[in-house]
């Protein structure tokens, strides 16, 4: 066998040998006890993920697609989840920002390994407005403010050299320290108003539980709930 084939075999063996790490027994999800609306369940699952020691339970995958219909994804942080929707912050001029301008529909995915859970949230995304965007930035750490200042108008653009980035960050750290209320002009708080939320609970024998909420204004509580084959 050539070195390339050895490497390919070893890689496949590695993948086959990997297991999803659960912290002991998985929680049992009885769909009959699920609330009428998804938000309380989402908040409970996020809190339980944090309590289980899941690293970064507030990180999520955000999928967008522009006018060409080609999806793109990246990780972003969840800043809030309330009656208005799921909140995240980014630059309006970034790739995702541009795609959201062209097509405001997006999807979020959370995966919490320790409790063996996944949540998917889809719907329409709206800008929360300049005041809410500035407040979002003010509520964050000096390092996050510096990163937003450095990235303003530039995130997702081609970077000529790493040195340029270092210089931009030096200036941004300095400004964030001096001006904690500085605003990054392109920083935007977005809110995804969900019309579909799906909860997935792994089960040891793969009889995974999937519960999907679909927005249904005619239903009491405004949502319809159904089970899905895993
Ligand atoms: C753990 C983690 C959290 C992140 N959080 C954010 C975030 O909240 N906002 C953001 O704009 N980018 C965040 N990023 C960077 C994005 O994943 C992405 O690289 C960047 O936003 C550019 O994406 P785009 O070119 O598709 O617009 C995060 C990356 C990681 C790994």
Task: Write a compact overview of the structure shown.
By secondary structure, the protein is α+β, with helices and mostly antiparallel strands. 32% of the residues lie in helices and 31% in strands.
Question: What do you see in this structure?
Answer:
It is a single chain. This protein is of the alpha+beta class and 230 residues long. It has helices at 3-17, 38-51, 95-102, 130-138, 142-151, 162-178, and strands at 59-65, 71-77, 80-82, 85-91, 105-112, 117-127, 187-201, 209-215, 223-228. The chain has a domain at 30-139 and 184-228: Pnp Oxidase, Chain A. 32% of the residues lie in helices and 31% in strands. Strands 1, 2, 3, 4, 5, 6, 7, 8 and 9 form a nine-stranded antiparallel β-sheet that branches. Strand 3 (80-82) and strand 4 form a beta hairpin. Helix 5 (142-151) packs across helix 6 (162-178). The two termini are 39 Å apart. Residues 59, 72, 74-77, 88-90, 94-96, 155-156 line the site of flavin mononucleotide.
């Amino acid at each position: 066998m050539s070195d390339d084939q050895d490497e390919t075999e070893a890689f496949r063996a590695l993948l086959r040998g990997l297991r999803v790490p659960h912290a002991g027994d998985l929680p049992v999800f009885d769909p009959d006890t699920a609330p009428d609306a998804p938000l309380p369940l989402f908040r409970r699952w996020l809190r339980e993920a944090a309590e289980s020691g899941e690293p970064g339970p507030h990180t999520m995958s955000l999928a967008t697609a522009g006018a060409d219909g080609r999806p793109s994804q990246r990780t972003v942080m969840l800043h809030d989840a309330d009656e208005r929707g799921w909140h995240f912050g980014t630059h309006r001029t970034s790739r995702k920002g541009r795609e959201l301008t062209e097509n405001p529909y997006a999807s979020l995915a959370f995966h919490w390994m320790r409790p063996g859970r996944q949540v998917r949230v889809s719907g329409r995304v709206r800008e929360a407005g300049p005041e809410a965007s500035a407040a979002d930035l003010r509520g964050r750490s000096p390092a996050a403010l510096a990163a937003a200042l450095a990235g303003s108008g530039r995130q997702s653009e081609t970077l000529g050299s790493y040195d340029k980035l270092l210089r931009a960050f030096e200036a941004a750290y300095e400004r964030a320290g001096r001006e904690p209320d500085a605003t990054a002009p392109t920083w935007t708080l977005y809110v995804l108003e969900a019309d579909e939320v799906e909860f997935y609970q792994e089960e040891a024998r793969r009889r995974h539980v999937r519960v999907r909420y679909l927005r249904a204004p005619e239903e009491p509580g405004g949502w319809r709930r159904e089970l899905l084959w895993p």
